[in-house]
Amino acid sequence: MNRAKFTVLLLFTLNISAFSQTLDLKGTNILDRFDSIVTLKQEFKKAYQAKECADNWSQYLRECKNVPTVEPHRSLKQIVSPDGFITLYYYLLPIADTEKRVSLFAVYTRDSIQRVVQFNEVLPPLPQPKNSINEEIVFAFANLQDTELKSYELKFFRKSTPEQSLSYHDFYLKCLFEEMALSRDNDEKNRLNEQDILPRMWKIWNEPSLFENPLYGYNRISTIISTDKKVKITTWNVELNDGSHQFYGAVSVQKEGKPITTYELTDKTNDLRSPDRLMLTHKRWYGAIYLDIIHTNYKKQDYYTLIGFKGNNELTKIKLLEVLTIQPNGEPRFGSSILTKGPGYAPRLIFEYSAGANMMMKYDESLKMIVMDNLSPSEPMFKNVFRFYGPDFSYNGYKFEKGKWKLYPDLDLRNPKTLQAPAKPVRKSKIPQTIQQ
User: Which residue in 393, 387, 378 sits closest to 354, CA to CA?
Assistant: First the structure.
């Protein structure tokens, strides 16, 4: 064994022996309950018991001074990162023939404080080997990708086919996002985002092999990639204690034969007046989390239409449609006036509604149309008081025709054959009317 490998093995051994502790009666009882879940017959009871046990185990870890060691035969498994920084426990619960629910518990020390982060997720299906039924899924840390940033790839695979794996590209980044989301300290949130999260995101944005990677498992990040594989947008938000939101992200552009260029997005929402009328840049951005990207083309111009969500404040939320274009120099521009609005066209459509309501807005592939709920106030007296707005059980749509997104009002989504083309809008003014939100 060479000296480097011996040093890693020695550090790993010291970490386990010096900082682990034996389970007490409380911890043993929780693990016994984990083990007994598989004997339950009803699926909803299994799911309920698994969640309760997961919450109890997470609380138990927070009470422990040192990291407890789990016996190998237990249904709750334990692994350690290559440098011993993260101890990870995982529990797998079958919920269907091809799906499993997993509870993950990461324990590590940051800023001299022991942290416990919990995730409850459904794993995507993995290939099932022939002549094998519900073969065990294994989690393993693949490697330490960056010593300074502590970037770890966490893979999961079926025991007999480790080569057919899926992974969290940087599991510590996933933990940091969860910490930030659950923190109640605005300064701590901002520090985590600026000092810990953004440097890791830049490494991901600048790695060519990850351009088409949708970043599976990062529940606090939205990653969308255009169908022509030229544009990738990553966005997330920091929710502050007063209910306001600050948005972050980047647009990565890959032109043929050229390296990836990444443009960080700077949220200037508070500085923008009438954002529904503005063309914006990555340095002057109407911040949002983008949920979908629709690529269209007209007369050699590519349009990337974005469906976005914006937590606005404690009273209202926002959904928006806007159009991204890539300039000849590669820079992104937000806002092309091709969205029907009143008698003309607008660069951005903003729909504000009650924080207690949900607005449907999505691209329907079968209709080749963006469909959405129509919003209206709960009472006529609340017109333009958007905290009282919500879906009224009617629907509108936008269809890309001859370089424009044409409005189709009052859709009958139950009978798509009845869709009629809208009347051609007549432009009366170069300034579009304020949108009916």
Answer: 387
Strands of the sheet with 261-266, listed across from one edge:
222-225, 231-239, 245-253, 261-266
- Give residue 246's domain range: 221-418
Residue 16 has pLDDT above 60, yes or no: no
Q: Model pTM greater than 0.90? A: no
For residue 29, what are the CA distances in angstroms to 20, 32, 36, 59?
A: 18, 5, 11, 14
d(CA 78, CA 85): 13
End-to-end CA distance of the chain: 68
With both helix axes pointing from N to C terminus, report the angle between 25-36 and 43-63 in degrees, rounded to the nearest 10.
Answer: 160
Cα 324 to Cα 81, 140, 400, 432, distances in angstroms: 41, 39, 14, 19
Residues β-bridged to residue 47 = none
- Report yes or no on 278 lying in a domain: yes
Residue 353 to residue 351: CA distance in whole angstroms = 7
Q: Are strands 20-21 and 67-68 parallel, antiparallel or unpaired?
A: parallel
> Hunting for tokens 């590519």 — which residue is that?
302
* Amino acid of residue 321: L
In-domain check, residue 209: no
**Is 253 inside any structural domain?**
yes
pLDDT classification of 18: cutoffs 50, 70, 90: very low
